[in-house]
Amino acid sequence: MTQYGFHFDQNRCYACQACSIACKDWNGIDPGAEKWLTVYEWETGTFPNIRIHPLAYSCAHCEKPTCIPACPEGAIYKEETYGAVLVDQDKCTGCRECYDACPYGAPKFASDDPGEKMSKCTMCIDRLEEGLQPLCAASCPLRAFDFGPLDELIEKYTDIRYCEGMPSPEITEPAYLIWPQREKEPLVPFDAERAIELNRQRGDLGTMFESKEDLTEFESGTIGRSELRMKHESMAELMRATRNDMA
Questions:
Q1: What is the pTM of this model?
Q2: What residues are paired with 9 via a beta bridge?
């Protein structure tokens, strides 16, 4: 078996959701939490060093998937041509043991209803059989995705399968490589202290804030998404974590 996989360049992605919407459209998935390709966003830092982090993630089609042995019905299997991890929905009973076992939250559900069957990324095998790329890779306007045999991707991009906040790749050996975000470099140098002081002033309207600490120190919970979370207790929580219900 040749293991195929994805490479994702976090520096190119700006969370436009094109990949997620294209995936839903191609696979006939209704709007809502059943997102085979899920785009996560989170924020770190404070002014002037704020950073928005994006991560577009479907299923890693892991080399050592934990979802397969977790399924009591034997509904999940790894096919032999591309190494894709697939689900037989006729066997699935919606027990969600696969979701509990997967560190990435790749199994998806359309609702929180008991018995809701699992669905997930298929690696677009139907497209691969026609010599086409998976639709997420084909639809990205900034070409943040690449796809192909995993060994070729590793040779091309190096073997990095993790960005800050993700589970350890040693758990499942995901067929998902990533170039994490590089450090920010200011294109135009500026005096941050002066910028803060100028932003305080609003003429007759008074000041926007009283001190520098108002921009740099926040109570816990003020920033809604301050870390990457790939697993969620409910569909509503997943929707809040992935920005909107457009996809």
A1: 0.89
A2: 179
pLDDT digits (tens, 9 = 90+) for 132-172: 999 999 999 999 999 999 999 999 999 999 999 999 999 99
Q: What is the mean pLDDT of residues 202-212?
A: 74
Query: With the C-alpha atoms ordered 62, 161, 53, 166, is the resulting torsion angle positive or negative?
Result: positive
Q: Give the least confident one: 41-55, 84-98, 212-226.
A: 212-226
Is there a contact between 98 and 89 (Cβ–Cβ < 8 Å)?
no
What is the model's pLDDT at position 19?
96
Mean pLDDT (the chain) is 91
The pLDDT assigned to 245 comes to 44
Secondary structure string (H, E, C) spanning the chain: CCCEEEEEECCCCCCCCHHHHHHHHHHCCCCCCCCCCEEEEEEECCCCCCEEEEEEECCCCCCCCCHHHHCCCCCEEECCCCCCEEECCCCCCCCCHHHHHCCCCCCECCCCCCCCCCECCCCCHHHHCCCCCCHHHHHCCCCCEEEEEHHHHHHHHCCCCCCCCCCCCCCCCCCEEEECCCCCCCCCCCCHHHHHHHHHECHHHCECCCCCHHHHCCCCCCCCCCCCCCCCCCHHHHHHHCCCCCC
CA distances from 124 to 71, 86, 118, 121, 129 (A): 22, 11, 17, 7, 9
C-alpha torsion 190→196→199→205, nearest 10: -160
